[in-house]
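Exercise 3.2. Students should predict the tertiary structure of the chain below and write it as structure tokens, then compare their answer with the key that follows.

Predict this chain's 3D structure.
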Amino acid sequence: MPDVSPNDQLEAVARSLIELREADRTRLAELKVELLGRKAGKLTQILRAVSTLAPEERRNIGRRANQLKQEIESAIGGRQAELIDCIGSSEARDLTMPARDAWRGAVHPVTAVIDEICDIFREIGFSRVSGPEAETEDYNFTKLNIPLDHPAADMQDTFFLSPGVVLRTHTSPVQARTMEQYAPPIRIVVPGLVYRRDAFDASHAPVFEQIEGLVVDEGISFVDFKAGIDYFVKRFFSKDTAVRFRPSYFPFTEPSAEVDVQCQVCKGSGCATCHQAGYLEIMGSGMVHPAVFENCGIDPERYTGYAFGMGPHRITMLRHGIPDIRLLYDNDMRFLRQFVE
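Answer key:
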């Protein structure tokens, strides 16, 4: 502390109140730091030194310093309000200018679809889980019955980060991790980003969301699989939406099927959206291959299950009639604001 009595220092600070009440915005900010700054503020230093004073002087100086602090804070607040009123006065406002558009935040339509899908499956006992986006070849391919010489493991489809490490091409690795970590029964949905070496066009993207599902238990049959998928489709689209299962091939399921739903635009009569087919494919699925169970330490003689994978971007496009997937990536508020409720 300088060789000036505490009372004299308080008087010097009190005189600053006059300047505070007339300061412009720049000077007001400077005075606030000079008087109340945490490190070198004049009043701050006085308050820190109060504990070193004699008891009687400590009481008087402390009371006066705290009172002065309140007066300074009140004066700063009052002056700031005056300056704002001055800026917003009719003399400073151009009433001929158009009003500024008010932006409203909202959930992205794809995020809303993901949450809705997960909520529907939660109704029938599924838990929502997640996993790493950088995966080993073992979890991304081998444990899922995909040999490393399979076309799906080719560099044309996969982003390799380093030898043996890839950006996951699907969320199925989380299925393998879950089966290794937990004993059946298992019911999970796995939303998350996946990465593929695809061209960015009207129907493809190199980075997109996927939702994987897995059920493992004793006695799970193809009937259970069809019932679970049918329940989801009718809850998400409508009760009268027709569902079609077409035979297909996936290394990690056997038998495998692609799931089609009745076109929501033409209601099955055929249109440009569904290429006159009346149906649109929304997911790949099937009964979990016994080799996948063996790779993850689950007895295929005791347990069965089914798995499915769907693209929320495509389902969002179906629901809202969006013709180009790139619209969902552009962050164009003119497009996104129509989804604000």
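Discussion points: The chain has two domains: 6-87, 109-339. The CA atoms of residues 54 and 334 lie 68 Å apart.
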